[in-house]
Amino acid sequence: MEDIQEKQNEETQIIYGKNAVIEALRSDSETDTVYISRSAGGMGKIIALAKEKGAVIKEVGEEKLASLCAPGAKHGGVAAAMAAASYSTIDEILSVSEKKGLPPFIIAADGIQDPHNLGAVIRTAEAAGADGVIITKRRSASLTPTVYKTSAGAASWIKVARVNSLATALEELKEHNIWVYGAEADGTPFYKAKLDGGCCLVIGSEGYGLSRLVREKCDQVLSIDMFGHVNSLNASVSAGILIYEAVKYRRDGEM
Description:
By secondary structure, this protein is an alpha/beta fold. It has 9 helices and 10 strands. The protein has a 6-stranded parallel beta sheet, with helices on both faces. Strands 1-4-2-3 form a 4-stranded mixed beta sheet. Helix 1 packs parallel to helix 2.
């Protein structure tokens, strides 16, 4: 039997889960092969999309499918081999807002290491119409299969730039008249800020918040009021609150 080597191939990566595979097939991502468990049902839509995309469809046993995915992963009976994650540039993200004719709307992750958190941030950013997400090459989760699955396929649709230095990237954004807002517990309550115009929201890491250099680059630091006994929120939850606060101003500006 043919050995499956996609996990070891640097030019491809395996994504899994129905939503992640569907969105990858619907997007411009290059999908080579779709693996479907022989015992799985309800795969008609995925099979149709795969055929439309010209991807190879292979029925495999449950053991083979599990071997493609991360240990213990809930793959839902389907996985796909697609081109390895390709990252965008900041200029490419800015071109998105230019085509929309709207001020830039960008989300930056300062050292978010949990792929589930990063996937959730990407999912919210895409749903809210953000132009792109910026992550760092060091101390950060990358576009792994877990991120794709957690993002419910949103990672296939939104541009993600991976930079050496987030502080330097924020300086570049400022040159385009983009206001940088950081999220931190000791900031100004977010509802007192006016998040109109070009906007970049920076979400800090799960345990340490914003790094010193990144915080210094922020034009304003925002906080979310805590009324209970815990004194912090999950990074992706904080991102969701701030992202949709910014959406409120962007929608008002369109009306």
